[in-house]
Amino acid sequence: MNKSDLLHELNEPWTVPAEAIAFYQEYGYVKLKNVLSAEVLSYYGDLITEQVFRLNTLIKPMEERTTYEKAFLQIMNLWREHDEVKEFVFSKCLAKIATDLMQVRGVRLYHDQALYKEPSGGITPWHADQFYWPLASPNTITAWIPLQATPMHMGPLAFAEKSQLVEIGRDLQISDESEALMAQQLTQFTLHETPFELGEVSYHAGWLFHRAGANASDAPRKVMTMIYMDQDQRIMQPRNEYQEADWRTWLDSRPVGAIPDSALNPVLFSY
Question: Which positions make up the signal peptide (predicted)?
Answer without folding.
Answer: none
